[in-house]
Amino acid sequence: MAATESDRVAKARRVRLGNRVVVTEGLELSFWADVSHRCLTASWPSFIGGAALVFIIFNAFFALLYWLGDQPIANVPGGQYIDYLYFSIETLSTAGYGDMHPQTHYGHFIAAVELFTGIFSMSLMTGLIFARFSRPRARLLFADNPVISNHEGQQTLMIRLANERHNIIANATARLWLFKNGVSKEGMAYRRFYDLPLVQRESPALALSWTLFHVIGEDSPLHGLSAADLEAINAGLGVVVSGYDDLAAQTVHARRSYEHSDIRIGHRYAEILRTTDDGLIRIDYSRFHDTIEA
């Protein structure tokens, strides 16, 4: 039976792809189907909050099992649930202070199961935290707006970026794409992307700033397009930069996407580099995103 409109709306999910929000329908993916990916992509507050919630649930469950038994734990005054909860925390975390300990076969069995759960969960948590910290990431700052103006006597699309860490990213490479809507001969709408050639795709050592240049010649997909034309085709830009981080000894990647409304035609970037009287290079990052009319 075909799903009704209300069913599809109920199963719709919002996902963010770069700066674009997409609503997906008809794809049922349970939380546990890809829990490792969710743990790696969640924000740190969400990750820590989720881990704390799981810790509380586990301890509450095992404390309930102890509480249901016939005095399974020694030195529990009055057999109150809160005391079993404290013992569960000691056992699950493998702390074992020693004042409370199992004294029946039932208590030993539940404690053994909880110890295994604690060892397993701590190993899993250690791996997830290590994976989150060890993921190679480039701290690249991209200008808020691509600009189009004359450069070296030719109309050029320019995008400025900078290395926020000020370390060396060796053999940095950049690629730039144009995304736009199109209609096939059969009348089907589709989204196409075009690789925009750059004047210089590689940088031997990206440490400070780097401006990407795409000459808008007759063979460029952007040739002759105005701001209204870019809006009509719902144009967008995608930038991907990768390189070898000498400090982390890993290959790092960074990307940024732009909408057609972000592109400023007839503008150029404000100057941020200058040389001081003592020969030092000074970069003013407070003007990094500023553009001025060409």
Structure notes:
The chain has 294 residues and is α+β, with helices and mostly antiparallel strands. The protein folds into 2 domains: 42-134, Helix Hairpins; 140-293, Immunoglobulin-like (Sandwich). Helix content is 30%, strand content 34%. The strands form 6 sheets. Strands 5, 6, 7, 11 and 14 form a 5-stranded mixed β-sheet that branches. Strands 8, 9, 10, 12 and 13 form a 5-stranded antiparallel β-sheet that branches. Strand 1 (13-17) and strand 2 form a beta hairpin. It starts with a helix and ends with a strand.
Can you tell me the CATH class of the largest domain? Mainly Beta
CATH level-four homologous superfamily name of the largest domain: G protein-activated inward rectifier potassium channel 1
Question: How large is the count of helical segments?
Answer: 6
The helical percent reads: 25-40%
The biggest sheet, with number of strands, parallel, antiparallel or mixed sense and barrel status, is: 5 strands, mixed
Q: Averaged pLDDT, please?
A: 88
So what's the overall shape?
Answer: elongated
Q: For the CA atoms, what is the radius of gyration?
A: 29 Å
Number of domains: 2
At the fold tier of CATH, the topology name of the largest domain is: Immunoglobulin-like
Our measurement of the CA-to-CA distance between the termini, rounded to an integer number of angstroms, reads 60 Å
Going by helix content, strand content and strand pairing, the class is alpha+beta
Membrane topology: Multi-pass membrane protein
Protein name: Potassium transporter
Keywords: Ion channel, Ion transport, Membrane, Potassium, Potassium transport, Transmembrane, Transmembrane helix, Transport, Voltage-gated channel
GO cellular component, one term: plasma membrane
